[in-house]
């Protein structure tokens, strides 16, 4: 490389090919904008080689300037000009200044004999062409008209295939030019036939109604899931209630299958997702088994909120917490995947309108995360409803059923001392209290009559299990 630079400095070698330099410096990373930065490097083979190697290592092509890109009289003596193409990701506004500072920072960091003189954003004139699309000349059937309005493309049949082709011509050109362009060449079979085909302006940059239909189907699936979580009766008392449950679940399942197809479409479209998912799943699954029981604490908190005992009771074992947290996690995951699945269908139906794949998926993830949060909140609300039902049974001194390992029992408290410290009120001696078991050296109680939560130390009282008489808990008589 040093010998080539010495030849270029002496003028013995032809100027470098800018296209070849761009390909050599291209590191394959994505970019949004390009900025041409005029720099001057000390006219020394070693300094020139070092500067060019450092710039190209960043993926910035370096070439000699063309006539008109610099003023020879403004170049510092003993320096040579070079054009550096800086490729950036980010906003368009301020790109030139950002590129200039990036080159300056690299020069300072590497102690390069390089001065930055100018930076300009590379811009191009707008494309002056419009798009025409080929259509059959025959009168379309009502079904074909509906498909066209919905944005569903029809490629014909195997016996009568229709060409899937669009043509770009100058925006002021007449329809005759579009026909001439279509007839002059045919990139793929079937060819253009002027007796069967015609051209008309294509519908570009407009989302078809089918995209809205997919969004509405995703919203309907989420709404059905929300209603099922909050109000779905489990084990109805009549056959029509069971049929209603089955109908709701069937409709939700049908809509969910469409969302799954959208997720599969995103998986097939994203190369990065196909590369990351095989090794990410084995990492996520063990972490989920450790995190999901912690998520299940929200279910217990919602249930115990009816008794004002949230955080005061030892919850169920790890398998029970895993089952409780699985409902919350599944609700959030369903909402998230519903948003992503809808974005997959939106992109699939509007990609020809210029919809960016990353933008569609990102919006779908944000909307899905919000939807998942709402569904997870519905699960905790359902847990609070279960707590209210249990509280109604407890007020009648009936023992409620277990809730994901959380078991309640009636007990009669016998203080060891008359003035035993009790937090929240006084202990009744003639009626049982509800308890979910001790936590550490304390036990939390709930009085069904006063509807107040109590707490005391285990060592300050003895606890006698309540008896059941006529289906209600009572304290045994003391002698």
Descriptive report:
There is one protein chain. It contains 12 helices and 14 strands. With 479 residues, the chain is an alpha+beta fold. A hairpin with a 2-residue loop joins strand 13 (467-469) and strand 14. Helix 1 packs across helix 3 (45-57) and helix 7 (209-231) packs antiparallel against helix 11.
Secondary structure: elements and pairs:
Blueprint: H1 2-10, H2 18-25, E1 33-42, H3 45-57, E2 62-63, E3 79-88, H4 95-110, E4 114-121, E5 129-136, H5 142-150, E6 166-170, H6 175-184, E7 197-201, H7 209-231, H8 239-269, H9 271-295, H10 297-304, H11 318-350, H12 357-395, E8 409-415, E9 433-439, E10 442-447, E11 452-457, E12 461-465, E13 467-469, E14 472-474
Antiparallel strand pairs: 1-3, 1-4, 2-3, 5-6, 5-7, 8-9, 8-12, 9-10, 10-11, 13-14
Helix pairs in contact: 1-3, 7-8, 7-11, 7-12, 8-11, 9-11, 10-11, 10-12, 11-12
């Amino acid at each position: 490389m040093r010998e080539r630079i010495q030849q270029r400095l002496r003028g013995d070698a032809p100027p470098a090919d800018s296209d070849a330099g761009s390909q050599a410096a291209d590191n394959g990373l994505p970019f949004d904008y390009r900025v041409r930065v005029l720099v001057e490097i000390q006219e020394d083979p070693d300094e020139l080689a070092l500067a060019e190697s450092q710039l190209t290592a960043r993926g910035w092509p370096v070439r000699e300037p063309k006539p008109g890109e610099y003023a020879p009289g403004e170049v510092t003596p003993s320096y040579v000009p070079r054009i550096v193409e800086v490729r950036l990701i980010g906003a368009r506004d301020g790109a030139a200044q950002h590129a200039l500072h990036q080159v300056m920072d690299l020069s300072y960091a590497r102690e390069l004999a390089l001065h930055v003189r100018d930076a300009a954003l590379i811009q191009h004139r707008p494309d002056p062409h419009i798009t025409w699309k080929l259509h059959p000349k025959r009168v379309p059937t009502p079904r074909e008209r509906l498909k066209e309005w919905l944005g569903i493309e029809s490629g014909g049949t195997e016996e009568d295939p229709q060409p899937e082709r669009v043509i770009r011509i100058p925006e002021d050109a007449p329809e005759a030019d579009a026909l001439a362009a279509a007839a002059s060449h045919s990139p793929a079979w079937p060819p253009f036939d002027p007796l069967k085909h015609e051209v008309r302006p294509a519908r570009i940059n407009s989302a078809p109604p089918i995209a809205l239909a997919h969004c509405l189907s995703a919203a309907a699936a989420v709404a059905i899931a929300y209603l099922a979580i909050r109000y779905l009766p489990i084990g109805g008392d009549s056959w029509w209630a069971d049929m209603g449950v089955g109908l709701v679940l069937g409709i939700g399942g049908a809509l969910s299958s469409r969302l799954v197809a959208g997720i599969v479409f995103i998986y097939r479209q994203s190369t990065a997702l196909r590369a990351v998912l095989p090794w990410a799943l084995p990492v996520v699954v063990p972490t989920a088994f450790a995190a999901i029981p912690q998520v299940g604490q929200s279910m217990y908190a919602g249930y115990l909120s009816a008794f004002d005992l949230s955080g005061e009771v030892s919850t169920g074992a790890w398998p029970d917490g895993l089952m409780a947290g699985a409902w919350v996690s599944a609700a959030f995951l369903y909402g998230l995947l519903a948003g992503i699945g809808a974005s997959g269908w939106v992109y699939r139906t509007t990609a020809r309108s210029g919809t960016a794949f990353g933008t569609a998926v990102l919006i779908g993830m944000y909307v899905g995360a919000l939807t998942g949060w709402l569904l997870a909140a519905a699960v905790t609300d359902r847990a609070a409803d279960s707590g209210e039902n249990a509280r109604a049974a407890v007020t009648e001194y009936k023992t409620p059923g277990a809730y994901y390992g959380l078991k309640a029992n009636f007990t009669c408290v016998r203080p060891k001392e008359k003035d035993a410290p009790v937090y929240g009120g006084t202990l009744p001696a003639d009626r049982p209290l509800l308890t979910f078991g001790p936590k550490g050296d304390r036990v939390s109680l709930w009085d069904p009559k006063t509807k107040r939560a109590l707490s005391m130390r285990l060592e300050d009282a003895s606890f006698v299990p309540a008896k059941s008489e006529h289906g209600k808990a009572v304290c045994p008589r003391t002698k």
